[in-house]
Amino acid sequence: MKRIITGKVVSDKMDKTVVVAVETLKKHPIYKKNYxxxxxxxxxxxxxxxxxxxxxxxxxxxxxxxxxxFSVSKIVxxxxxxx
Length: 83
Known about the structure:
Blueprint: E1 4-11, E2 17-27, E3 34-44, E4 55-60, E5 68-77
Parallel strand pairs: 3-5
Antiparallel strand pairs: 1-2, 1-4, 2-3, 4-5
């Protein structure tokens, strides 16, 4: 079963690669307080369509490089970033 994860693009400076930040909400086992945990994944973007701030859906694939084993399946929403 391949994992499908939704996250936000935080970097698009590499060629055919984007860095996607995924936030998950977890509960502390003792104090029962909810906290956010952020993981970053490098994902393959063949046509360099994703821009910084976009919300994308990534799918697990075979290893493409040392630390890139996800690929962008679709862009959920785009975000215009002011520079």
